[in-house]
Write a structure and sequence with these properties.
heterodimer, A: alpha+beta, Rieske Iron-sulfur Protein, eight-stranded antiparallel β-sheet, four-stranded antiparallel β-sheet, 6 helices, 18% helix, B: alpha+beta, four-stranded mixed β-sheet, Ferredoxin (chain B), 2Fe-2S (chain A), Rieske_2Fe-2S (chain A)
C-alpha cells in the first residue's frame, strides 16, 4: 500500500484501501417475507453475525440476534412456541421485542434478560431489517417506497433469487454509475445515461437499444424488441428499485426489478434479485408469467456475469477514469454517508449531484462493434461453421417476445 | 473509507460556478463536452430552484426523483456558449 497514485516511472499504483469496519446504516431486504412464514425459525447470516427470523403467533415477523444470552445457544435451531422463540439448549423463551419472557424451569426471569431485536418492515411481500451501528431507529425520510404492482392482481408475483457473493458489497453498488460495463459485461447497449444523487437516494436513468448480435434474430411474426428505458434508484445503501420498460414494436412492457443485498460480513454479501411484470392481454394468459420467468433468468445470468468479474478483480479505491465513465468518486462520497455516524454525515455526501454522460463516442464505438459481430456471424453461417453469438452467456430479454409461449 | 476527489476535475476542467437565469440558484457545473454535464447543488440552490419546488412527485416507486431543472440546464448551456464555462472537449468530433 502506497500513499501516492503514481510510483516509479509514472506507473499508476492501485490502492485497494481497506474494507469498512462496520456495516451500512439503512434498510436491508432479507427476501420474500412468505419464506419466513412457515412456523419455523430461520438462520440469517448478516452484518457479521447470526440472526434468527421467526413468525410469532400474532403473525408478526421478528428478527433477533441468534445467540441466546443465557449460554449462547442458537435460537435459529430452536422452536417457535406461541409468540416466542424457544432456545434448543435450555428452552428460554424470547419475544420479538428482544426480552426473555419465560424460563420454564425458573421461578423468575433474571435482570438484564434482553437481546438485540432488529426493527423490521414487512412491505409488498418483502422483509426488511433496519441496521444501525449506533442503535437508533430509522429516521423520517428514509422509508422504502411502496411498489404498487407487488400488491396488485394486474402484476405477476415476485420471482426472487439470491446468491452469496464473496467480495465486499461496494462492488455491486459501483454498478449504478458504470455505464460501459453494461455493454461489455451484460451485452446491453446504453444510449443515454444519467445519475442523480440526493439525500439517501442514488438514481440511474438509462435508455438502451437491444443488441442484435447478442441474441438470435427475432422470430417471424413476433414484434421485435427495440430497447428499454430504466429508472433505477437505490433507496439507501442496499435496496434498488428499477422501474423498467421494454419497448417492443407496437407495445411497451412494464416491469419492476429489485436489485438488493445484505452484507454477510466485510467480504461477502447476499445478492438478491426480484422481478414483477405487468399483465398485458397482448401477452396472453400465461405470457406475463413466462416473461417474468425469462427476465428472472436473464437477471440471474447478469449476476453471474458480474460475479465472474468480481471474483477475479481487485478492490480499487483510486479508479482511473476517462470522461466517458460515470461519477464513481461522487457515488462513493454518497455511499460513505451510510458508514459514518449520523452526526458525521457531511453535506457533500447528501447534497444533490447530477452527472449526465456524453454517450456520443461510446455509441459510435459500440455500433461498429455490433456490426462487426453480426458480419462475423453471417460469414460463419455462410461458411457452415457454428454461427455463435458474442458469448454463450449473451442472452437478452429480447428473446422474450410478446404473443404467447415461445 | 474516505472519499477521494475525482481526478478528472484535477487533471482537466474543474467545477465552476454557474447561476440559474431563472431563480439565481448558484451551483457548480462542469462540461467535459457539449453533451456531458456535471452539476453540484448546495442546500441553498435546492431551496431556490423554482422548478424543483413546483415539481410534483412522479408515478411509481422512484417518482420522488427530480430528474433535472430545465432552466438550470439552459443556463449552463448558455454559460458554455458565452465562454464563461469552458467546455473541455470542444473539438466536436469526439477525438
Amino acid at each position: 500500500m502506497t500513499t501516492t497514485d503514481t510510483g516509479h516511472d509514472g506507473v499508476r499504483t492501485i490502492e485497494t484501501g481497506a474494507v469498512p469496519a462496520r456495516f451500512a446504516r439503512g434498510w436491508h431486504c432479507l427476501g420474500l417475507s412468505e419464506r419466513f412464514r412457515d412456523g419455523r425459525p430461520h438462520t440469517v447470516h448478516a452484518f457479521g453475525s447470526k440472526l434468527v427470523v421467526f413468525q410469532s403467533g400474532d403473525g408478526r415477523l421478528n428478527v433477533l440476534d441468534a445467540y441466546c444470552r443465557h449460554m449462547g445457544g442458537d435460537l435459529s435451531q430452536g422452536t417457535v412456541k406461541g409468540d416466542e422463540i424457544a432456545c434448543p439448549f435450555h428452552d428460554w423463551r424470547w419475544g420479538g421485542d428482544g426480552r426473555c419472557k419465560k424460563i420454564p424451569y425458573a421461578r423468575r426471569v433474571p435482570l438484564r434478560a434482553r437481546t438485540a431485536a432488529w426493527t423490521t418492515l414487512d412491505q409488498d411481500g418483502l422483509l426488511f431489517v433496519w441496521n444501525d451501528p449506533e442503535g437508533n431507529p430509522p429516521p423520517d425520510g428514509v422509508a422504502i417506497p411502496r411498489i404498487e404492482g407487488a400488491a396488485s392482481d394486474g402484476w405477476t408475483d415476485w420471482r426472487w433469487n439470491e446468491t452469496v457473493v464473496h467480495t465486499n458489497c461496494r462492488e455491486v453498488v459501483d454498478n449504478v454509475v458504470d455505464m460501459a460495463h453494461f455493454f461489455y459485461v451484460h451485452y446491453s447497449f446504453p444510449t443515454y445515461f444519467k445519475n442523480v444523487f440526493e439525500g439517501h437516494t442514488a438514481t440511474q436513468i438509462m435508455k438502451g437499444l437491444s443488441r442484435p448480435d447478442a441474441r438470435p434474430p427475432s422470430k417471424k411474426g413476433r414484434p421485435g424488441m427495440l430497447g428499454n428505458t430504466s429508472v433505477a434508484t437505490y433507496h439507501g445503501p442496499s435496496f434498488m428499485i428499477d422501474d423498467l420498460t421494454y419497448h417492443y414494436e407496437g407495445m411497451d412492457l412494464d416491469c419492476v426489478l429489485i436489485n438488493c443485498h445484505y452484507p454477510v460480513d466485510a467480504n461477502s454479501f447476499v445478492l438478491q434479485s426480484g422481478i414483477i411484470v405487468e399483465r398485458d392481454e397482448r401477452l396472453g394468459a400465461a405470457g406475463a408469467e413466462e416473461m417474468a420467468a425469462r427476465l428472472s433468468d436473464f437477471i440471474l445470468r447478469g449476476f453471474e456475469q458480474d460475479v465472474r468479474i468480481w471474483k477475479n478483480k481487485t478492490r480499487i479505491d483510486n479508479p482511473l477514469l476517462c470522461e466517458e465513465d460515470g461519477p464513481v468518486y461522487q457515488l462513493r462520497r454518497w455511499y460513505e454517508q451510510f458508514y459514518v455516524d449520523a452526526a458525521d454525515v457531511r453535506p457533500e455526501m447528501v447534497e444533490r449531484f447530477e452527472f449526465e454522460l456524453d454517450t456520443t463516442r461510446p455509441v459510435e464505438a459500440w455500433k461498429k462493434e455490433v456490426e462487426e459481430n453480426l458480419a462475423r456471424r453471417a460469414a460463419a453461417a455462410a461458411g457452415g461453421a457454428s454461427p455463435g453469438t458474442v458469448s454463450r452467456d449473451a442472452v437478452s430479454p429480447g428473446e422474450v417476445s410478446p404473443g404467447g409461449a415461445a | 473509507m474516505t472519499a477521494r476527489p475525482d481526478e478528472r476535475l484535477l487533471d482537466g476542467e474543474p467545477m465552476r460556478p454557474v447561476r440559474c437565469r431563472a431563480c439565481g440558484a448558484a451551483v457548480q457545473a462542469r462540461k467535459a463536452s457539449w453533451q456531458q454535464t456535471s452539476i453540484q447543488w448546495s442546500a441553498e440552490a435546492m431551496a431556490a430552484c423554482l422548478e424543483r419546488r413546483a415539481a410534483a412527485a412522479g408515478g411509481g416507486p422512484n417518482g420522488g426523483c427530480f430528474p433535472a431543472c430545465e432552466a438550470l440546464r439552459a443556463s449552463i448551456v448558455q454559460a458554455a456558449l458565452d465562454g464563461e464555462l469552458p467546455v473541455a472537449d470542444d473539438g466536436g468530433d469526439g477525438s
